[in-house]
Specification:
The chain is an alpha+beta fold. The chain is built from 22 helices and 37 strands. Bound molecules: pyridoxal-5'-phosphate. Pyridoxal-5'-phosphate binds at residues 106-108, 135, 137, 179, 183, 213, 215-216, 238, 249. It catalyses: Mo-molybdopterin + L-cysteine + AH2 = thio-Mo-molybdopterin + L-alanine + A + H2O.
Length: 840
Amino acid sequence: MVESTFQGSTHSKYSQGYSADVDIIREQEYPLLNGTTYLDYAGTTPYAKSTIESFSRDLTSNLFGNPHSMSVSSQLSTQRTEDVRVRVLRFFNADPDEFDLVFVANATAGIKLVADSLRDSDHRGFWYGYHIDSHTSLVGVRELAEMGYQCFQSDDEMEVEISKLASNQSKAPRLLAYPAQSNMNGRRLPIRWCEQVRSATKESGGNVYTLLDAASLVSTSPLDLGPSSSAPDFTVLSFYKIFGFPDLGALIVRKSVARVFERRKYFGGGTVDMVLATGVQWHAKKETSIHERLEDGTLPFHNIIALDTALDTHERLFGSMANISAHTEFLAKQVYDRLSSLAHFNERKVCQIYQPHTSTYGDSHTQGPIIAFNLCNSRGEWVPKTEVEKLATVQDLQIRTGSVCNPGGTASSLGWTGPELRRHYSAGLRCGDNHDVLGGRPTGILRVSIGATTNMKDIDSLLNFVEEFYMEKSPPIVALDPLTEDNEVVAPHFYVESLAVFPIKSCGAFKIPEGKRWEVKKEGLAWDREWCLIHQGTGAALNQKRYPRMCLIRPSIEVERGVLRITCGAIAAPDQVSLEISLGWEDTSLISTSFCPSSSKKPTTVCGDRVSLHAYTSPVVSAFFSDFLGVPCTLARFPTQTSSRYSQMQRTPNTWKNRFRKLIMPGSFPPDFPPPIREGGQTQITLSNESPILIVSRSSVNRLNETIKANGKNGSSKTVAADVFRGNIVVAERLAHRGDVEQPYAEDRWSSLRIGPDQLRFDALDACQRCQMVCIDQFTGIRRAEPFSTLAKTRNIDGKVRFGKYSALSPEELEGFDSELPDRRTVMVGDVVVPSYQDD
Ligand SMILES: *Cc1c(COP(=O)(O)O)cnc(C)c1O
């Protein structure tokens, strides 16, 4: 454990000006932050308890009517809305005589409103320039810029553009946009650009507008719109980033540019004085104020009223945005200094921080409290971000990863060019997927962001996490168990300890009874992962990682009765419910759906690949699962009799089409949409059949548990059952002689194995990549930190956490497969297992 190297809590900037020490505020107002390390304030700030409580009191003691009316309740809403509008303007030091505030859904909606209006304002459309550090929502404006656009790759390019404006002869509208703070690395950009643009265009009469995206800045900094002559023409922000609640945004407009909105084409309820609905196409727009012309439809008046209480609470707890700025800047510098000093035993740095070269942590003019970085091992190789994510999840550390909605900032930090990214996209790279490192370079970043309620403990937890799991204190010991290297040792006696299938993907196991031989098919054990649950809205397969209760859905196969019996609820719980479904194909209809591989992400699978599934149409079936999980879902079955269900589907889509009525999920691609081209991989695992047969070694589980116990803080044992690894075959060793010891991880070196009296041959494939799903207790559905935390330390192979071995029936067994009797290929609990080793 590292102790904070600095007595932060006594520093003058820490909690400066707050109503109490930040720890006390947290205890009273932010109980949801207990027991977790929340470092994603740039995503959203959490809301204070008081805000919600006083909002609730406000709503329960007042009748608020729809603002567009004359009734008392309506007038109350109108009056409160107008008061809040002025209050918010003052919060940003914007004089209500010179600025107007338009309520919008969020910052993005504000940006879009400006872009739409500018497009309508001139028949030529407009020209658009944006800074490379822009959020995706600013980048998207370029699609509306009919006169072209430019992305400024640096501040210098931006400033050159501004200096050229004076001699610009064109009278067509131009819009220049940039973020006040990068949401990726927290860099703060100069507000003065807006003033420079204005003075450069004064002579030529203007028609050049500035749009400041303040969404990231305002969560931890004051925004002073000051004299309107130097302010941006348009400023957008989202309130949830400042207060946590309400979900609402604002567009602040300098009144002197109101003309931009005069030709906006659309009108909605509330923005017109009179409309002729038939006959002549005529309407009279409201002319009183900018906001009245732009706020289409009924305002989110309850949200606006909530803003009042949010402002009250915020002011009471933190005093001012300047206090928050000092507090967060101080903590960000701590994080920066401490992360950048971490080094491995060989003095290589643990963290590569993507620090903008124009800014300094600790200087609130140039840098906000956001740190973007990646981790490296002692050989200088990148740690895949999804591996960090998984471990962060089980350690209750909440950070953001990926390209964090800042495409220009991340690409330029990581050194990717446009053509390279296009190539990766064609090869299957997608936002939010698990292609972490391509060609030796990371595709995304880790982002830590700090807010008003971050405390020193959060910072210590973050540093502890990085030190414990990613800082190598000594050279890695390449320790194959000496025994397995020693050829003199008598071959141990392996046997099948238990057998299980998972008839419904990601749900509970069906343990194959002892004494019963179970058929092995080319795609795995019979009935394994034959079904799955799909979300009725998205069509995606559900997984236990997201819905841990799925392990309490326990299917069993009753071949003799021809039924799949499903029981939901904890074992022996009184409220268990059951459902029986025929093993035949009745009651299903074919659908095409996107499918995200769940537990064992394969590098060759693209999330969102189209697959065809037979969904059960009966409302009884969907209600059974939906009620238990609290998620609208239903059961679906994979098409049958295919070695690779996916490729079979691709080859013969027409037969399916003819045989079944095709039901396309809303929003889905056409069923014949070509699958993305994949790089040829050496992975031998077929696509739909993500996990042919998973073998777990009892000896390895035992070793792992010993390690967990040995490292367990204050002796608390958090050992795990072999079930968490969801293996099909658990192989154990029979120790023949006293003094014999088990051979954990011997399976790493298996090349093939023969099982049972007929010596059925299986080829060993890849080791199984693990995620935080192994932390779900399969009997209770409760998530814990182990065994993933210990696995991450002890079983990290090429940057991935691995445990267990995939295997598949050897091709030699498959010869003449269809003609022979199937029964020959079976396994049973107690069967002898004889492995061959790679180096034999
Ligand atoms: C969060 C953010 C946005 C988008 O905000 P929404 O609420 O999603 O519209 C835009 N720009 C920046 C800099 C942000 O941080």
